[in-house]
Amino acid sequence: MPHTMQEIPTKPFDGQKPGTSGLRKRVKVFQQEHYTENFIQSIFNSIEAKGSTLVIGGDGRYFSPETVQTILKIGSANGVEKFIVGKDSILSTPAVSNIIRKYKANGGILLTASHNPGGPDKDFGIKYNVSNGGPAPENVTNKIYENTKTIVSYKVIEAPPVDLSKIGEFSYGPTKVSIIDSVADYVVLLESIFDFPLIKSFLSSHSNDFRVLFDGLNGVTGPYAQALFVDVLGLPKSSIQNCIPLPDFGGGHPDPNLIYAHTLVDAVEKDGIEFGAASDGDGDRNMIYGKGAFVTPSDSVAIIAHWADAIPYFKKGGVKGLARSMPTSKAIDLVAQKKGFEYFEVPTGWKFFGNLMDAGRLSICGEESFGTGSDHIREKDGLWAVVAWLNILAAANRESPNRLVGINELLYAHYAIYGRSFFSRYDYEEVPSAGANALVAHLNHALDSGSLTNTTHKSASTGTTFTVSGLYDFAYTDPIDKSVSKNQGQVITFSDGSRVVFRLSGTGSEGATVRMYVERYVGPEASAEELKRDAAEGLKGLIEVALELSKLKEFLGVDKPTVIT
Ligand code: VG1
Ligand code: CO
């Protein structure tokens, strides 16, 4: 088909640096003339675009359909041979990772700002994934960023927009465009991993005493949840809620935690539902929350690792190794030690797990930020984690035919073997950058001068004392490619093994977001009462001491965190 190409002059924009997971800004920023085009051309300048096959999809948030057309225009002009696009621009982040791998594409462009709110006044995001299906590593994102600083023009092809609602193969100038079903490949993938017949028989024999509720928070997972829970597993339609993807997620934060997923928490508590779960805007996060039972993501990944044998994928392929991001609690390390698996601590962000998986040294990993996953793809995977929990509960109940094993029974059984890591995260969102930088400088000073080391601090309300045993700035050398990532969070350790971490977020779109992570370990010899304690109670003293040591409230000028998880 004849086509015309145009080269359009442009000028660089400041600040097009991808963060923890892609470039995230307000929609209004992306809507500026040439802004989105510049970033997309910079991606194509940084990869081998000619002759490539790329996947496009996202969480369906506001400004996605327009951006798909922009990518098609610029990509085609840059020589992309084929685009595989999710119908209506919808593909969850894990689904994109799977499609890149399954169809041997060269990479993919994901249109999402994940758990950040959407809509004309909220956030949009663009992320590039490479051929292993995972987020581009730092050398690629740095190259993209360097390109955004020197860009002088971008290329477009002139062609009418593609109808994204029609599944099929189309030609678009010199490029092939294949619009695919958003859900089908992902369902096939999960069916190849889990014991669906076992889960199905467990759920149908316990339809009265083990009810399930999944909340899509109006993000991308709705259609996937319908397919998995209702169509495949045979649960009633009432088992899923907020499962229509909306461009503004119904006005909420599509973030599965105790604060933002209150539609799930409320429904579970009101109806006494045994198993509740939610996922985020783009489907890579998960929360497991049943009646009176909240599973911290750090515990969740440890429990999945402990029960790996119940999952056919691991039973067959074995567990090659375990890993967590640095701020995540050490619960999974204990499982690795007991079972003799290799284990790793990497910086925050899923991109750091990819090399280990590709090298065959990592099978199950997680982040405290409600991210759990495995080497079946190269992104964290919300619905994978939910189905993993159902598979494990089904297996546990097969061993306990007379008494229902629920979420809490699994948790307490785990603590009785490994002990418990009390864990919590305080987020101070959109605080002034100057205050956040001053906090970092204060901690750096303590680190360099050693002024805090060996000091003892007493919590006013609990009377517990904590002695600082060390302070360091976390840096990571990738064991596979030896690349070094510095300044990944400031860690304060205490003589009782407790730990506090301070980190600046790399996913916010305004001001700065400071995260404080606290962890306190209690061994399996502790009393059942101690092990079953409310997490907030178990951490109270340590949190007070952490706030005092860091002078966080003074620096940030705020009294309370925006979110506690
Ligand atoms: C946050 C989380 C991090 C996660 C990242 C992307 O990053 O802390 O663990 O990998 O979001 O998750 P930060 O830099 O804001 O702390 V998602 O679901 O937003 O892609
Ligand atoms: Co996400």
Automatic annotation (TrEMBL):
Catalyzed reactions: alpha-D-glucose 1,6-bisphosphate + L-seryl-[protein] = O-phospho-L-seryl-[protein] + alpha-D-glucose 6-phosphate; O-phospho-L-seryl-[protein] + alpha-D-glucose 1-phosphate = alpha-D-glucose 1,6-bisphosphate + L-seryl-[protein]; alpha-D-glucose 1-phosphate = alpha-D-glucose 6-phosphate
Cellular component, GO annotation: cytosol
Gene Ontology biological process terms from the UniProt entry: glucose metabolic process
GO molecular function: magnesium ion binding; phosphoglucomutase activity
Superkingdom classification of source: Eukaryota
Domain Alpha-D-phosphohexomutase alpha/beta/alpha intervals: 16-153, 205-289, 302-402
Keyword Cell membrane: no
Cofactor field: Mg(2+)
Keywords recorded for this protein, A-Z: Carbohydrate metabolism, Glucose metabolism, Isomerase, Magnesium, Metal-binding, Phosphoprotein
Region (Disordered): 1-21
Enzyme class, UniProt record, top EC level: isomerase
InterPro entries: A-D-PHexomutase_a/b/a-I, A-D-PHexomutase_a/b/a-I/II/III, A-D-PHexomutase_a/b/a-II, A-D-PHexomutase_a/b/a-III, A-D-PHexomutase_C_sf, A-D-PHexomutase_CS, Alpha-D-phosphohexomutase_SF, PGM
Gene3D superfamilies in alphabetical order: Alpha-D-Glucose-1,6-Bisphosphate, subunit A, domain 3 (3.40.120.10), Alpha-D-phosphohexomutase, C-terminal domain (3.30.310.50)
EC number: 5.4.2.2
Similarity section: Belongs to the phosphohexose mutase family.
PANTHER family named in the record: PHOSPHOGLUCOMUTASE, PHOSPHOHEXOMUTASE FAMILY MEMBER
Database matches in NCBIfam families: PRK07564.1-1
Protein name (Swiss-Prot/TrEMBL): phosphoglucomutase (alpha-D-glucose-1,6-bisphosphate-dependent)
Organism per entry: Mycena rosella (Pink bonnet)
Record lineage: Eukaryota, Fungi, Dikarya, Basidiomycota, Agaricomycotina
